[in-house]
Design brief:
There is one protein chain. This protein has 513 residues and is an alpha/beta fold. It has two domains: 286 residues, Glycoside hydrolase 38, N terminal domain (7-stranded beta/alpha barrel); 112 residues, Families 57/38 glycoside transferase, middle domain (immunoglobulin/albumin-binding domain-like). Helices cover 50% and strands 7% of the residues. The chain contains 17 helices and nine strands. The chain has a nine-stranded mixed β-sheet with strand order 8-1-2-3-4-5-7-6-9, with helices on both faces. The chain is globular, with a radius of gyration of 23 Å. The mean pLDDT is 95.
């Protein structure tokens, strides 16, 4: 029997609603929604209806869900898609004037594409994205994993109550969205230290497994047996580790997205509306020398690359099966990628994924199934030190000299929030205005804890925006905490912040108490 493959997409976006627009801010989530989320939800829909072979697992972080379910952002997406279609139609006329038939044809395709997306959103997905996921899970073709509330790097938080709140709020969000308890949990950034054992095990059940980076698995005879599900530390949770080959084939500079026929992400035509008319050509080709994109060639390459991927997974499976002849229990190849790769950075990624799932058919399995089989087989224990989905398996991308100020904001806010809870009497917490201010301070703290801000600073990707976001949420937190502690309310400011940063309308203080 071939070694099964788990295709897992991690779907996350930090909170950007009413916190800037362009080039980062709301434009960020609108692009991802149009280019990644709508195509992936269509794939989920097709899996549920039996129109697409295979099985797919994905995460949906609570803070992203809060934005996808937000009527204001839904209206913004409809306007965004309508505007993109209009811009593309204008581009057709501009290219006709330039005598550029190739780019004119691409502009026409872009216009049709955005019009189709708008139609699909209005007819099938507006206000129904959770329902589509529920339909997919009900058929057994889709599995959704839970995650922490705002994608905080859990080991970097200053206290157990803060880590517990992130997990508890994440699980409550999952229940509200999916109408059921989760089996699997995605640790943000796959970041883990042994200190998380007690916390995670306290949520098991319902949790039965977690996903770790391949660096979590120690070498045995010069190789890391990432294919072997094991019990995590001293817990009852099964640990599933990402496969390094599946990672390298896609998620490296020479991976499939670097294929010459694929759409070049980095080059945009700013003489018009910023559309991307060029192909990769080769990774070494300068941007000003890129060839014009040919969609039919990209479609063919996606099919070829999918075949190449599946062939490599089969070969990897044979090697795994050969090395596991003397042991009992299931094996797996876990191929995990960011959802935002599929369609945004790699326009043809969703098409590639469809081909992969079709080629794998029943060999594409869900992680919960593997975890259940593993538990029944009395697996070995995996004792893990520090690990994360990072170039060196450490937390260096999030915890370093450049991010020290951001982490200081987080830790000070966590300490002050804990002190406020401790010093405010039960009577004071029962006063609606003061509890309302404290709850909004909790929302600001949760947003501040997101791993995205230090990541952006370290990678120098909109670092100024990330620093500004951290600073602004710290300032909002301070103002709200003062209201809660003193009872001196600024109703206008409080209402403004509640409307600006509004995730988790159902939030209570219980996760921290």
């Amino acid at each position: 029997m071939p070694v099964p493959v788990v295709l897992l997409l991690h779907t996350h976006m930090p909170y950007v609603r009413r916190n800037g627009d362009w080039p980062v801010g709301e434009e960020w989530i609108l692009e991802a929604w149009a280019e990644c989320y709508l195509p992936i939800w269509k794939l989920v829909e097709d899996l549920a209806a039996g129109k697409q072979p295979g099985r797919l697992a994905l995460t949906l972080t609570p803070i992203l869900w809060e934005q996808l379910d937000d009527p204001y952002l839904q209206d913004r997406l409809a306007g965004y898609l309508e505007n993109k279609a209009r811009q593309a139609r204008n581009e057709v006329e501009r290219m006709r004037g330039l005598g550029d038939d190739n780019r004119g044809d691409l502009a026409r395709r872009f216009a049709e594409h955005y019009s189709r997306l708008l139609g699909a959103f209005e007819k099938r997905f507006r206000g129904r994205m959770a329902e589509v996921l529920r339909e997919g899970t009900a058929t057994g073709r889709v599995e959704v994993l839970a995650s922490a509330a705002t994608h905080a790097l859990l080991p970097a938080l200053s206290s157990e109550p803060q880590r517990r709140a992130q997990v508890a709020i994440g699980l409550e969000s999952y229940r509200r969205v999916l109408g059921r308890d989760p089996e699997g949990f995605w640790l943000p950034e796959c970041a883990y230290t042994p200190g998380l054992d007690e916390l995670l095990s306290s949520f098991a059940p319902p949790l039965s497994y977690v996903v770790l980076d391949h660096t979590a698995v120690p070498e045995e005879g010069g190789i890391r047996p990432t294919w072997e599900p094991r019990l995590l530390g001293d817990t009852s949770l099964i640990a599933l580790a990402r496969d390094p080959l599946a990672h390298d084939l896609v998620w490296t500079e020479r991976g499939y997205p670097a294929g010459g026929n694929y759409r070049e992400y980095a080059k945009r035509d700013y003489d018009g509306y910023g559309f991307q008319y060029w192909r990769v050509t080769s990774p070494a080709t300068p941007l000003d020398e890129k060839d014009v994109y040919r969609p039919e060639n990209a479609v063919a390459q996606a099919s070829e690359d999918a075949s190449h991927f599946v062939e490599n997974m089969r070969r990897r499976g044979e090697e795994i099966a050969s090395s596991c002849r003397s042991r009992r229990g299931p094996t797996l190849i876990l191929a995990a990628y960011d959802t935002e790769l599929m369609g945004h950075w790699w326009l043809e990624g969703t098409l590639w994924l469809r081909h992969v799932l079709a080629l794998l058919e029943d060999d594409a399995v869900l992680p919960g199934h593997i975890a259940g089989e593993a538990r029944a087989s009395k697996p070995r224990r995996l004792h893990v030190g520090m690990t994360a989905w990072n170039v060196d398996g450490t937390f260096s991308t999030w915890v370093n000299r450049e991010t020290s100020e951001l982490l200081e904001y987080v830790h000070l806010s966590e300490m002050e929030f804990g002190d406020a809870l401790a010093c405010m009497t039960c009577e004071a917490l029962g006063e609606p205005p003061r509890e309302r201010a404290l709850l909004q301070a909790a929302r600001e703290l949760l947003i501040l804890q997101a791993s995205d801000w230090p990541f952006m600073v370290t990678r120098d990707q909109a670092a100024a925006y990330a620093r500004d976001r951290a600073s602004s949420h710290r300032a909002r937190f301070n103002l709200l905490l003062e209201m809660a502690l003193t009872g001196r309310m600024d109703e206008e400011k409080l209402a403004f912040l509640e409307n600006t940063d509004n995730p988790f309308s159902w939030l209570t203080l219980d996760p921290w108490l």
